[in-house]
Amino acid sequence: MADIVPTAAEDIPSAEVAEVDLYHAKSWWTKYVFSQDAKVIAVQYSCTAIAIGLVALVLSWLMRLQLGFPESFSFIDASDYYQFITMHGMIMVIYLLTALFLGGFGNYLIPLMVGARDMVFPYVNMLSFWVYLLAVVVLVASFFVPGGPTGAGWTLYPPQAILSGTPGSEYGIILMLVSLALFIIGFTMGGLNYVVTVLQARTRGMTLMRMPLTVWGIFVATILALLAFPALFVGAVMMLFDRILGSSFFMPAIVVMGEQLSYSGGSPILFQHLFWFFGHPEVYIVALPAFGIVSDLLSVHARRHIFGYRMMVWAIVIIGALSFVVWAHHMYVSGMNPWFGFFFATTTLIIAVPTALKVYNWTLTLWRANIQLTLPMLFALAFIVTFVNGGITGLFLGNVVVDVPLSDTMFVVAHFHMVMGVAPLLVIFGAIYHWYPLMTGRMLDEKMGKFHFWVTFIGTYTIFLPLHYLGILGVPRRYFEMGDTSFIPDSAQDLNAFITVAALIVGFAQLVFLYNLFRSLRHGKISERNPWKAASLEWQTAAYPPGHGNFGEHLPVVYRWAYDYGVPGAPDDFIPQNVPNNAVAESHAEAPSAADDAEAPRT
Amino acid sequence: MNFFREITQKSWLPTDGPGDEIRDHGAFALPQATVGLRVFLVVATVLFLLFVVAYSGRMAFPDWRAMPEPWLLWPNTLALILGSVALHGASLSARRGRMDELRTRLWAAAALSMAFLVGQVLVWQELFALGYFAAANPANAFFYLLTAIHGLHLLGGLGVLAWTVTRIYGGVEADQFKQSVNLCAVYWHFLLVVWLVMFGLLSFT
Question: Which ipTM did the prediction report?
Answer without folding.
Answer: 0.94
